[in-house]
Automatic annotation (TrEMBL):
GO terms for molecular function: ADP-dependent NAD(P)H-hydrate dehydratase activity; ATP binding; metal ion binding; NAD(P)HX epimerase activity. It comes from the Bacteria. This is Bifunctional NAD(P)H-hydrate repair enzyme. Keywords: ATP-binding, Isomerase, Lyase, Metal-binding, Multifunctional enzyme, NAD, NADP, Nucleotide-binding, Potassium. Residues 10-209 form the YjeF N-terminal domain. The lineage of its organism: Bacteria, Bacillati, Actinomycetota, Actinomycetes, Pseudonocardiales. Its EC number is 4.2.1.136, 5.1.99.6. (6S)-NADPHX binds at residues 62-66, 128-134, 154, 251, 304, 356, 420.
């Protein structure tokens, strides 16, 4: 699992390491690593290093210091380096001196545009972890002129380091070179960071437990249930799907199909779409009501069940069965409208809620807002449930405080019925006995990979996602075995 730390934790760790390291050493490590990445980037984008033109956008703190020192290192490799100083009086003095000594040039913001126009690569050293708010106008004007690819130092300036939120002008980087540990911006704002490269500056031992995590492929592979020689269709966990209605049979077909494809155990279906589900997925045992469904080890409830009294009765029934429940779509709306349905639940039985932003607002009485990690954490606390807050970067919060952020692979998942597919995946893992937080995070990852496989750069459908699930699982397993 990749660890991610808030800027507060990074700063504390840097402080401790700083105290036992010779002066300037940490910045030397960071900026040397940055210069290596910049040379590599120049090679990739221009086919060479020597003779290329790099422009540094330099702000008033150590982020600008990193850029200036990296510029000095690049000079030794024959790169023409020009630093545009946004606040000349506050530019990092040692870094500026080093750049000038190495033959680099420093110019004011007024003289900046002509240098930006001729740059092969622009380096964003405007602001790092001490950033607040979007780019200020002077920086924004210059960034606006950039046509060359941008490498961001630590993080793209203008993007909030702890939430990844953008509410004004910001840098859109092609590569971000960060130091010591990943920060939330790197997983919450991937489209602003571009490719993220982590440079080791010896900070890891000081960082402690990460506050956020992102599953690696090996974690997903390890979490995915695989039958053993002793297994049969029951022992792998039977999942029940309570979804769909006469008006919305598709949700039932998608959620049931997704569960069928996710694991090799048994899938039961209960609801008004039994005939259609049976016709699409003959391996599903389908009945008309949850009470007739037979035993399951987890329920998926909600997609397409409606928010009326029938849906409420179904939800109350499955919550009372003492098995893990993934409550999705209409089920989240019912919980928001009639929280008393949760009385049917034994608080120790796992519950996974999978709201999109609109459903979150119903559940919590407010929008998730720009800080989606805090939003998910608060909902997890309030409902004593794992909350999977959907979005481009889905956030998964457990009531015990664990947070995972999912890795998006494009945005093709933004298609009708895609959420129904996700709930089937979550349910299949819950039935197999997975930890609910891990189940939700692993399901989100396979969902995103299935999206990329199904789409292959062209629109896909939720049905396409269902069909791509085995290939996604195969890809994950083959990369790790
Ligand atoms: N510490 C370490 O051990 C190591 C640190 N390292 C590096 O240091 C970086 C952190 O440096 P830092 O703390 O000096 O602050 P930094 O982020 O450069 O900001 C400086 C100033 O910018 C301003 N400003 C704020 N918001 C703004 C905005 N939106 N738009 C424009 N300007 C804005 C504001 O100053 P103001 O202009 O308000 O006076 C703020 O004080 C870190 O990201 C990493 O790169 C590495 O070398 C590894 C070792
Ligand atoms: N821009 C996007 N990028 C990546 N994934 C997205 C994007 N928009 C939506 N998704 C994902 O697609 C799914 C949509 O679910 P949901 O809103 O419940 O749709 P539906 O109700 O149509 O099934 C979620 O898993 C969500 O994370
Ligand atoms: K930056």
């Amino acid at each position: 699992m990749q660890g991610i730390w808030t800027t507060e934790r990074i700063r504390e760790a840097e402080g401790r390491l700083f105290a036992v390291t010779p002066e300037g050493e940490l910045m030397r490590r960071a900026s040397f690593g940055l210069s290596v990445q910049l040379a590599d980037f120049l090679e990739d984008h221009t086919g060479g290093v020597s003779g290329r033109r790099v422009v540094l956008l330099v702000g008033s703190g150590d982020n600008g210091g990193d850029a200036l020192w990296a510029g000095a290192f690049l000079r030794r490799r024959g790169v023409a380096v020009t630093a545009i100083l946004l606040k000349p009086e506050k530019a990092h003095p040692a870094g500026l001196k080093a750049l000038k000594r190495a033959g680099g040039r420093a110019v004011s913001a007024e003289d900046g545009p002509q240098w930006i126009a001729r740059a092969d690569v622009v380096v964003d050293g405007i602001v790092g972890i001490s950033a607040s708010g979007s780019l200020r106008p002077d920086a924004a004007r210059l960034v606006d002129l950039v046509e060359a690819p941008i490498v961001a130092v630590d993080l793209p300036s203008g993007v909030d380091p702890d939430t990844g939120a953008v509410d004004g002008p910001a840098v859109r980087a092609t590569r971000t070179v960060t130091f010591g540990g990943l920060k939330p911006v790197h997983v919450l704002a991937p489209s602003w960071c571009g490719e993220v490269v982590l440079v080791d500056i010896g900070l890891r031992p000081e960082l402690g437990e990460p506050q956020l995590r992102r599953l690696d492929i090996v974690d997903v592979a390890a979490a995915w249930p695989v039958p053993g020689p002793e297994d049969d269709k029951y022992s792998q966990g039977v999942v029940g799907i309570a979804a769909g209605s006469a008006t919305y049979p598709g949700a039932a077909v998608l959620a049931a199909g997704s569960a069928v494809r996710a694991t090799s155990g048994l899938v039961r279906y209960a609801g008004h779409a039994a005939d259609i589900v049976r016709a699409q997925w003959p391996e599903v045992i389908a009945t008309g009501t949850v009470a007739d469904a037979g035993r399951v080890q987890a329920w998926v409830v909600g997609p397409g069940i409606g928010t009326g009294s029938d849906g409420r009765d179904v939800l109350r029934y499955v919550l009372g069965q003492g098995v893990p429940v993934c409550a999705d779509a209409d089920a989240t709306t019912i919980i928001a409208k009639s929280p008393d349905v949760l009385d049917a639940r034994d608080p120790d039985t796992p519950l996974v809620l999978t709201p999109h932003a609109g459903e979150y607002e119903r559940l919590m009485g407010r929008k998730p807002g720009p800080d989606r990690v805090t939003a998910a954490r608060e909902a997890a606390k309030k409902y004593n449930a794992v909350v999977l807050l959907k979005g481009h970067c889905t956030v998964i919060a457990a009531p015990d405080g664990r947070i995972a952020v999912n890795r998006p692979r494009g945005a093709w998942l933004a298609t009708a019925g895609s959420g129904d597919v996700l709930s089937g995946l979550v349910g299949a893992l819950l039935a197999a006995g997975s930890d609910p937080w891990l189940a939700a995070a692993a399901a989100a990852d396979v969902h995103s990979l299935a999206g990329a496989i199904a789409a292959q750069n062209a629109p896909t459908s939720a049905s396409g996602l269902v069909h791509a699930i085995p290939e996604a699982i195969r890809a994950i397993r083959s990369l790790t075995s």
